Amino acid sequence: MDSGNNAWILTSTALVLLMTLPGLALFYAGMVRRRNVLSTMMQSLGAAAVVTVVWALIGYSLAFSDGGALNGFVGGLGRIGLAGITPETMAGDLPENLFLMFQLTFAIITVAIIAGAAVERIRFSAFIIFGGIWLVLVYAPICHWVWGGGFLGEAGVLDFAGGAVVHINAGVAGLVLARFVGARKGYPGSNMAPDNLVLTVVGAGLLWVGWFGFNGGSALAADGAAAHAFVTTQLAAASAVLVWMGLEWILRGKASVLGAASGAVAGLVAITPAAGFVPAWSAFLIGAGGAFGAYWGVTALKRWGGWDDSLDAFGLHGVGGLVGAILTGVFASEAIGGTGGLIEGNILQVWTQTWGALAAAAYCGVVTWLILFVQSKLMSLRVDEEAEVTGLDTSLHGESVAG
């Protein structure tokens, strides 16, 4: 065991968990109406709980253990219930307990992101059940495809910290969930302005800080690759904030606080697959590309599609993740990540990145729809109209921010 690497990944694990609790919980809670603030935060808390249990029981095994004949598609059951893992069991130069915990925090935030697409009308119990099933049938296989020895990793798809595994996956699942559950009552004509953007900015700040563990920790070592990921992460986020503000100045006449926070997240999403593979200067362009793509995703594309993706899980994470995946193929450098991209003459890497991202999106979309279809036959996914009008804080949890 390398004690320095061990200490850094312990820290990174805590940082990535911080991204969900309280980071994403606050980011999302500030954007809903006051009567749904607590229920929105509860979804992040519930996701952390259900994903932890399911990950320990079967998710980790399906993602990272040997699957035999199906190993290109999904892992096996060798680690079911965390069987065979002791304090001495190693994953590379890290304790396997630490590796599985680090990977768990990625699974938690992926499921929590999905919730943002259907806040203010989805039943909490339905979301918790959906999250557990989705982790097994969608997240674990796609995680295995990329990081567990599956076919995308073997094909050369580059995903340093989760562009496809986390963001495209969550964004597409969120879009399917939003379409399946249906729009909020009164959407889009009613006033659905955010209740407290202070919470959103605090949440965005925690996400930004936590992302250094998300991207830097994905080097799985306290080394130059982790430090490089720190640099590219910061540059992309800052670039995206400025681009998003510029777009709002040009198109709306004012730069909004919500827009700046959304821009930061868009840039962080876009750099995620690229952070350890691209030169630092390209992070400016990747962040800018993520901002342009996500801005289009949450405005024109959303209006065209007519879906009520309440907190723009698809626009920010799905579109931003796709832009980042493709631009990774453009800017990847052999001197940094071992595989050159388009700017180094390897045009095929762009194709590899594109089909890999689309394969993950297609599988996620189809299986997510099937899960929701079956689940809807067994239970109601949506609260009734009275509960929605009253607010989910009171109707589902018997509480409110007013006391």
Describe what this molecule looks like in 3D:
It is a single chain. Helix content is 69%, strand content 1%. By secondary structure, it is mostly helical. Strands 1-2 form a two-stranded antiparallel sheet. A hairpin with a 2-residue loop joins strand 1 (90-91) and strand 2. Helix 2 runs parallel beside helix 4 (124-147), helix 3 packs across helix 4 (124-147) and helix 3 (96-115) runs parallel beside helix 6. The N and C termini lie far apart (49 Å).
What descriptive keywords fit this protein?
403 residues; 1% strand; two-stranded antiparallel ribbon; mainly alpha; globular; single chain
Across the major sheet, the strand order is 1-2
Average of pLDDT? 97
Element-by-element helix/strand order? HHEEHHHHHHHHHHHHHH
What Rg do the Cα atoms give? 20 Å
Overall 3D geometry? globular
Which blocks of ≥5 consecutive residues have pLDDT under 50?
none
The total strand number stands at: 2
SS summary, helix count: 16
Secondary structure: helix percent: 55-70%
> Strand pairing plus helix content: what structural class?
mainly alpha
The largest β sheet comes out as:
2 strands, antiparallel
Tell me what portion of residues adopts beta-strand conformation: under 5%
